[in-house]
Amino acid sequence: MSDHVIEPGGVVCDPVIELDQVVRDHGSPPVRAVDHVSLSVGRGEFVAIVGPSGSGKSTLLNIIGTLDRPTGGRTIIDGHDVGAMSDAALSALRAYRIGFVFQRFHLADGVSAVGNVADGLLYTGTPRAERLRRAVASLTRVGLAHRLGHRPHQLSGGERQRVAIARATVSDPALLLADEPTGNLDQRSGAGLMDLLHELNAAGTTIVMITHDVALARQAPRRITIRDGRVVGDDRGAPA
Predict the structure, then answer these.
(1) Is the distance from CB of 226 to CB of 50 less than 8 angstroms?
(2) pTM of structure
(3) Which is higher by pLDDT, 39 or 3?
(4) Which of the four pLDDT bands, split at 50, 70 and 90, describes residue 13?
(5) Spatial separation of the C-alpha atoms in residues 27 and 72, rounded to whole Å
(6) Staple 176 to which of 68, 99, 127, 147, CB 3.0 to 4.6 Å?
(7) Which domains, from first to last, does the chain contain?
(8) Beta partners for 75?
(9) Residue 51 neighbours by CB under 8 Å, 6+ apart
């Protein structure tokens, strides 16, 4: 395993993600969803993992997010060897160091935007007043200071996804994982969401986004293509 990632132009970044020959099998007889994947993602990168449905990209994201344990290989997330950690330790790692954004938002109905975001700190032991203060700051950062008391049904799809991003980043995680984040949004809202992700990345957030949309993936500075559980392309350069 490498100790660092060398970015284009010779800039050295500490890795947030290191996968070494990672394998994930499902079912019996086993079907291989991830097939000996090795890759590193440096701190501050914005990476799109792109591939068709069934390519293994969602399974790979779940492994990176420590929601699923690999069948084989080694996974290191933000310096932590996942294979050596207990379930409780993995839960703590997710609570403090990993933020998740999903296609379907996963917001609590009947709970205000600020309440949904504050709930993102429940498992960190943060006092309620501090949770609310940080939730307000996080919603303000994503442009929703005027929607603090609104409930999900009172928000547009784009606004709900911004609430989800505020919740995912309220703990200042080392890593933000986005699973088809524009999948339930119209074109305009999707474009606004991508602008927001680029702003968060420019401010230092490491982002890994999975998508089946090649055009969307081209907006990321690095594109990793996965097919049949294997990495078949890893392109770096200016977003298209």
Answers:
(1) yes
(2) 0.88
(3) 39
(4) low
(5) 15
(6) 99
(7) 5-236 (3.40.50.300)
(8) 19
(9) 57, 210, 212, 225, 226, 227
